[in-house]
Amino acid sequence: MQSTPFRTPSPRVAVIGAGAMALALAAGLAGGDPPLRIGAVLARRPPAAPAFDGMAVCADAAGLLAWGPDLVVECAGHGAMRDLVPACLAAGVDCIIASVGALAEPAVLADVRAAAERGRARLVVPAGALGGLDALAAARLAGLTAVTYRGSKPPAAWKGTPAEEACDLDALERPAIVFEGSAAEAAARFPRNANVTAALALAGLGPEATRVTLVADPGLVANTHRIEAEGAFGRFVFETENRALPDNPRTSLLAALSLQHAVLNHVAPLIP
Ligand SMILES: NC(=O)C1=CN([C@@H]2O[C@H](COP(=O)(O)OP(=O)(O)OC[C@H]3O[C@@H](n4cnc5c(N)ncnc54)[C@H](O)[C@@H]3O)[C@@H](O)[C@H]2O)C=CC1
Ligand SMILES: O=C([O-])CC(=O)C(=O)O
């Protein structure tokens, strides 16, 4: 038998979405050691970037499933997560998702859970642009008392969001709070900027009790995420300053790398 660095000889990995994160994921996996080529993409139109060359292009969930993936990575948006991921899970295909914010809606979480149970498949929720969720999920087992999150991005990253109603993004001279509330509300109102708050809520205190502050800061070039957590375990503070992807100022490179790591974790026998 041919030797392979993966658990199966040729893992069949597909991606939903062909935007900034899918591009970074495809290029990252193909350039890795060992290289792993994503074989299929579900996209609204055939993607032009060379990173997608050679991939089967699918138009819908039926086409994707007909290609025969053993792993699907969603990086398209809340609508794609809600509409496409349950079908993949119900068909027995494991999924890794970027658009975690969709799970802050209890009905969507229930739907996805039921589909995964029906298909005996696994939904993987990566930390995305955040870090520290392994510690938070472990700490939760002994009880958490408070989890707060503060996410700060340059004004350009908040364009086209409700932050435009909170301040004049083009005229900001100092940091402005554009949202304060629960993770549930943050994930729903900022579907392209606050998926991390839903991942934090799932790992910790849930969508209502996780407190969120979102900030537009003209002094920043990086997307900054700060978590503070307290509970029976003690206390931790985790902060990361993330470079954005070249094709999307809202999305951190670390979010794409987190998906890449989750894919490798799924296909490799051992990965640190
Ligand atoms: N968990 C995390 O830390 C993060 C999660 N995200 C999530 O990842 C998503 C993707 O991020 P980017 O690649 O930066 O966004 P992007 O806007 O660059 O790309 C999204 C792509 O998905 C496509 N798309 C949308 N709905 C689709 C559908 N139903 N079927 C097929 N294609 C569809 C769009 O046409 C676009 O090409 C975001 O919308 C957000 O929900 C983004 C950043 C961080
Ligand atoms: O990439 C980031 O920094 C976070 C983000 O957009 C999200 O959670 O939706």
TrEMBL record:
Residues 173-259 form the Aspartate dehydrogenase domain. Keywords: NAD, NADP, Oxidoreductase, Pyridine nucleotide biosynthesis. Its EC number is 1.4.1.21. It catalyses: L-aspartate + NADP(+) + H2O = oxaloacetate + NH4(+) + NADPH + H(+); L-aspartate + NAD(+) + H2O = oxaloacetate + NH4(+) + NADH + H(+). SUPFAM superfamilies: Glyceraldehyde-3-phosphate dehydrogenase-like, C-terminal domain, NAD(P)-binding Rossmann-fold domains. Pfam families: Asp_DH_C, NAD_binding_3. It is an enzyme of class 1 (oxidoreductase). Pathway: Cofactor biosynthesis; NAD(+) biosynthesis; iminoaspartate from L-aspartate (dehydrogenase route): step 1/1. The keyword DNA damage does not apply. Residues 17-126 form the Aspartate/homoserine dehydrogenase NAD-binding domain. This is L-aspartate dehydrogenase. The gene is nadX.
